[in-house]
Amino acid sequence: MFKSNTATSTMALTAVIVSLLGGCGSIGNMGAIKDGLQFAVDCQPDKALQKLDIAEADGGLSGYMGQLERIVVLKDAGRSAEAATTLDKYMALPEVKGETRAEVEQSINNSLEELRKEREKQTGKRTCG
């Protein structure tokens, strides 16, 4: 499904999350992350968010990644208020205390850029609509 550059995007967010969590916990459902991101590339944000719900519910690394990728999908869909609320909730997690909001936002913006590059590669369009 999700082909080339999205691996870079996912790796960037993974690096942030791993640094925050210090290697604790399980991996969770990375397949749901991959599927969710492909739905985002395909301009189906609601389906993407459903897949990210699964990743978050499964916990572990995918739970944290699901929260961050949710912000990416919301921003991509133009749902800025929801993205901001989700980021606030994420930043309030005890595990996130080691990272600044600016660092997390930079990772999210990098992931958003990679999502749009992948969409352009697959569909010829950077944005939906």
Structural account:
The protein has one domain (6-119). The protein is mainly α and 129 residues long. It has helices spanning 6-21, 30-41, 45-58, 60-76, 80-91, 101-123. It starts with 5 loop residues before the first helix and ends in a 6-residue tail after the last helix.
Question: What's the quick description here?
Answer:
By secondary structure, the protein is mainly alpha-helical. It has helices spanning 6-21, 30-41, 45-58, 60-76, 80-91, 101-123.
- Report the average pLDDT across residues: 84
Residues in helices, as a percent range: over 70%
Tell me the span between the first and last alpha carbons: 21 Å
Measured by DSSP, the beta-strand proportion falls in under 5%
Determine the number of helices (DSSP H or I, runs of at least 4 residues). 6
The figure for the number of domains is 1
SSE-based structural type: mainly alpha
| Total DSSP E strands | 0
Note the overall shape. globular
Order of helices and strands: HHHHHH
Which residue ranges are poorly predicted, with pLDDT under 50 across at least 5 consecutive positions? 1-8, 17-24
Question: Which value, in Å, is the CA radius of gyration?
Answer: 13 Å
Largest sheet data: none
